[in-house]
Design a protein that fits this description.
This protein is α/β, with parallel strands linked by helices. It folds into four domains: about 150 residues, 3-Layer(aba) Sandwich (Rossmann fold), CATH 3.40.50.280; about 110 residues, Transcription Regulator spoIIAA; about 120 residues, Transcription Regulator spoIIAA, CATH 3.30.750.200; about 60 residues, Nucleic acid-binding proteins (OB fold (Dihydrolipoamide Acetyltransferase, E2P)). The strands form six sheets. The chain has a six-stranded parallel beta sheet, sandwiched between helices. A hairpin with a 7-residue loop joins strand 17 and strand 18. Helix 8 packs parallel to helix 9, helix 9 packs parallel to helix 11 and helix 12 runs parallel beside helix 13. The chain is globular. It starts with a strand and ends with a strand. The structure holds 5'-deoxyadenosine (5AD) and iron/sulfur cluster. The site of 5'-deoxyadenosine (5AD) has 12 residues, from strand 15.
């Protein structure tokens, strides 16, 4: 792909609306003939950005007259929104699509679409073209707004529509969104990434950084707050560099400060931050704010300066821990979480031990830890790799240490009363009601389903490694 970025014009969006109307007319006719609507199933793999994109896919499918279902076997349209961050995610997408082949055997009318990060890569496009003939539609992250056009073409011409030469990265506004939740929402602040960390595929599959206009973001957040949304997360691969691509005279901290001025009872989160751009100004704005959650997700990746350099992360541990210390100084109640990769090529036992001591020093509330997965086309994939056995052994040691730190971080919460946004009955523990604290910690408590979507005060009785347990404060 080339590095062009562009805002999709209103007339292009209007054109897509025309295609939506055409597909809708066909689906209305089908419903009238058969007494039921055709259904669409969207499967999402990967990160929050993908979840947000899927809400747009569902929004468009709904406008096109489909009923959204969570049962692939009853669908007439299946879209798999893929992820490319690790090999596991790619394998999963391919195996799921393989299963959908059997549904298509029973219902040949079924249209199977693949989109998202995995299917922007040339080797994957070729793979799907030749080895997955039952995939009808294929389009990348920059063509999501063209879903109606591509689907209409497939339905009309009865042939596969596989995009393979997407030449630009776009920002598209005014697309229908079908939000999964009535109280938690994603709002994209920017798309893409310019950092080229040597292990990461994202800059290749999501393109260069491009920010949405501040007015659009403010209007979207205001509308959500007015509708009663309680928890709004601003998304971007690297939200801290918001505005730089537009040459704006305001930055991410200014955007947050402006959003914080919106009246209402809600919390604002953001992710993900790159330590090289996490400014003191941003932390000061958070500390002084009314609505910005005291939660910082700050991926460290490694505690070894040599590995950080090889990863092209542009900071060392000293700079990193300086930010953590400043967050704690300004917001002693802040929850700090991080991402760690183990088994990056060149990581020695000493490097790994540096990561362990960095965890002991930083004392994260929680980490997301990953075994390094080579990504075709990234510099680290060309380096000498570490044996799988060493990687998984280090991974286990990392988890054991972090588990004890998480437990130590949660114990002092016993006896405290925390404000929790209730998510209703737990899917895993049917007897408990669940929710999340301002910092995103899972809480199980008594209470009832009617509390879903509201803030409740919970007195914490037990702080465990992965969750807190408590009772509604009377
Ligand atoms: N292998 C393992 N983990 C990775 N991540 C990104 N690329 C890779 C890779 N190739 C992790 C990083 C990032 C998180 C979203 O995924 O830790 O912060
Ligand atoms: Fe990937 Fe690094 Fe960009 Fe994050 S900052 S998306 S890890 S390249």
């Amino acid at each position: 792909m080339q590095d062009k970025t562009r805002t999709v014009s209103l007339s292009e969006i209007e054109e897509q609306k025309g295609y939506m109307a055409a597909v809708r007319a066909d689906n209305e006719w089908f419903a009238a003939e058969n007494g039921f609507r055709r259904k669409a199933f969207v499967l999402t793999l990967g990160c929050q950005q993908n979840q947000s994109d899927s809400e747009k896919l569902c929004g468009m499918a709904e406008q096109m007259g489909y009923e959204i279902t969570d049962k692939p076997e009853e669908a007439y349209l299946i879209a798999v929104n893929t992820c490319a961050i690790r090999e596991h995610a790619e394998k999963r997408a391919l195996s799921l699509v393989g299963q959908y082949k059997h549904i298509k055997a029973k219902r040949p009318e079924l249209v199977i679409a693949m989109c998202g990060c995995m299917v922007v890569q040339e080797h994957r496009i070729n793979d799907i073209k030749h080895r997955y003939p039952y995939v009808d539609l294929l389009f990348g992250t920059s063509s999501i707004h063209r879903f109606p056009e591509l689907l209409a073409e497939k339905l009309k011409c009865k042939r596969r529509v596989l995009l393979s030469d997407e030449k630009e990265y776009v920002v598209a506004e005014d697309m229908p969104i079908r939000r999964e939740s009535t109280y938690r929402a994603w709002v994209s602040a920017m798309y893409g990434c310019n950092n080229f960390c040597s292990y990461c595929i994202v800059p290749y599959v999501r393109g260069r950084e491009r920010s949405r206009r501040k007015e659009e973001i403010v209007a979207e957040v205001r509308e959500l707050v007015e509708k009663g949304y309680k928890d709004i997360t601003l998304l971007g691969q690297n939200v801290n560099s918001y505005g730089k691509d537009m040459g704006a005279d305001y930055d991410f901290a200014d955007l947050l400060a402006e959003l914080d001025g919106i009246e209402g009872d809600y919390l604002l989160h953001f992710m993900t931050s790159h330590p090289k751009d996490a400014s003191r100004k941003l932390i000061d704005v958070m500390a002084d704010s009314k609505h910005i959650a005291h939660h910082f997700h700050l991926p460290m990746q490694s505690g070894s300066d040599a590995v950080l350099k090889a990863m092209n992360r542009k900071y060392d541990f000293e700079r990193y821990i300086g930010i953590v210390d400043y967050i704690r100084e300004k917001m002693p109640d802040a929850t700090i979480t991080s991402d760690i990769i183990v088994g990056f090529p060149s990581e020695t036992e000493e490097d790994f031990e540096a990561t362990l001591s960095a965890l002991s020093r930083a004392r994260f509330d929680m980490i997301f830890s990953f075994i390094y997965s080579p990504r075709k086309g990234t510099p680290a994939a060309e380096m000498e790799q570490i044996p799988d056995k060493v990687k998984s052994e280090r991974f286990e040691r990392l988890l054991a240490l972090q588990n004890s730190i998480s437990l130590e971080a949660n114990k002092p919460l016993e006896g405290k009363t925390l404000r929790v946004l209730c998510d209703g009955r737990s899917k895993n523990k049917a007897e408990a009601i669940t929710g999340r604290t301002e910092g995103g910690k899972i809480v199980f408590f008594d209470g009832d389903q009617s509390m879903e979507g509201s803030f409740v005060d919970v007195e914490i009785e037990r702080g465990d490694t992965f969750a807190l347990y408590g009772k509604i404060k009377k």
